[in-house]
Amino acid sequence: MALGIPPRARAEGNPPSRNPSVFSWPMYTPVSTRRVKNTNATRRGTTPKSFLQQITLYRKLLQESRAQLQYKMNHLECGLQKLQTTAMQVAVIQAEVSMKQRETVNRTWLSQLW
C-alpha cells in the first residue's frame, strides 16, 4: 500500500495528492486496525490508550492543516493588497498621462496656428 494515497482514490484511479487530506484520515483507521490485528494476534480491537493516541494524532494533523491554510490565506491577502495598491498607482499615472496628452495636443494645435 502506497503511503499518502487513500485506498478510495487508488480504487477510483484519481491522481494522488501531495498532502493527503486530514479529513480522509478516519478512512485509514479501519485498514490500519486490520493490519495490526493480522500482524499481532494477541491484540484485539482498539484500546482506550490507542484510541486517545488516534484522537491526539488527528488533532495534531488538523492543527497543521489549519496552519497551512492560514499561511496560504495570508499569502493571498498580501498579494491582493499589492494588486490594489498597484491599481491605484496605475490610475494616478493614467490621469497624469491623459493630462499631458491634452497639453501636447494643445501645444501642437497652437504651434500649427503660428
From TrEMBL:
MF (Gene Ontology): dynein intermediate chain binding; dynein light intermediate chain binding
Gene3D superfamilies: 1.10.287.2610
GO cellular component: dynein complex
Biological process according to GO: microtubule-based movement
Top-level taxon: Eukaryota
Region of interest called Disordered, as start-end residue ranges on this chain: 1-25
Full protein name: Dynein heavy chain 17, axonemal
Organism: Merluccius polli (Benguela hake)
Gene: DNAH17_4
